[in-house]
Amino acid sequence: MLTASFGTGAKHPGAIAICRGVPTWYKGLRYIELAPTKVMLQKENLVNFDQAYARILADLYPQKVYDELCKLAGKAEPVLLCWESFGLRCHRRWVAEFFEAAIPGLQIPEIGHARADSIRYVDMPRKGTAAAKRIMDASKKALKSKSATLW
C-alpha cells in the first residue's frame, strides 16, 4: 500500500480516493468510509478536525478496512489518494499510520518516497502556514528538476 496526492498517484492502477470530493477528471475507485465529512472540512471546523477524524477511525477495524482496500484495488497495489501535496497535513498520512500501528511490520510510504521521508501526521504543517509554503516551494523545485532531466 502507498499514499499519494491526486497529482502524483491518480493514474496508478490501484488508486483509491479516500476523500469526500475528487477532481472532475478523476474517474477511479473511491472508499468513502475513510473520508472526512463535509462539516469537518468547513473552515470554521478545521480546529476540531483531528478530534472528529479520530472518532471516524475509532469506529473502524484497521485489518478489515485494509483488506477491503486491497480487494478493491484488485491485483494492483492500493494507493490511497487525497488532495494535499506530500509533506502537508493530510488525513491519508493518518490513515497510513492507523494501518501501520495495527498491522505488524506494515510500512506505507508516499508514492515516490521512502517511508522515512514522511513525518508523523501530528507534526505535519497545515496548509497556509509558513512551514507549508516552504514544503510547497521545495516540492515545485524538485518537480522542475525531475522534468528537466526527463527531456
Helix percent reads 40-55%
Q: Radius of gyration, Cα only, in angstroms?
A: 15 Å
What's the overall average pLDDT, rounded?
85
Q: Count up the helices.
A: 6
How are the strands of the biggest sheet laid out side by side? 1-4-2-3
Work out the count of structural domains.
1
List the helices and strands and how they pair.
Blueprint (H helix, E strand, L loop, with lengths): L1 E4 H4 L5 E3 L11 E2 L7 H4 L7 H10 L3 H12 L5 E4 L8 H12 L27 H21 L1
Parallel strand pairs: 1-4, 2-3, 2-4
Structure description:
With about 150 residues, this protein is α/β, with parallel strands linked by helices. The protein has one domain (about 1-125). Helix content is about 40%, strand content about 10%. The protein has 6 helices and 4 strands; from the N terminus they run E-H-E-E-H-H-H-E-H-H. The chain has helices at about 5-10, 40, 50-60, 60-75, 90-100, 130-150; strands spanning about 1-5, 15, 30, 80. It has a 4-stranded parallel β-sheet with strand order 1-4-2-3. The protein is globular, with a radius of gyration of 15 Å. The protein starts with a strand and ends with a helix. The model is unreliable at about 145-150 (pLDDT under 50).
Question: Summarize this, please?
Answer:
The protein has 151 residues and is α/β, with parallel strands linked by helices. It has helices spanning 6-9, 38-41, 49-58, 62-73, 91-102, 130-150, and strands at 2-5, 15-17, 29-30, 79-82.
Keywords for this entry:
9% strand; four-stranded parallel beta sheet; 6 helices; single chain; disordered C terminus; alpha/beta
